[in-house]
Amino acid sequence: xxxxxxxxxxxxxxxxxxxxxxxxxxxxxxxxxxxxxxxxxxx
Length: 43
What we know:
about 45 residues, 1 helix
């Protein structure tokens, strides 16, 4: 039972980590898009 509980907690931790990385990726894409727009208006 303890092994099952540990794996569930580990799975939840990994899921949260993946979700956080996906969110960071989306924010970086938005940031890069804004930078690209700024760069093209500066030229």
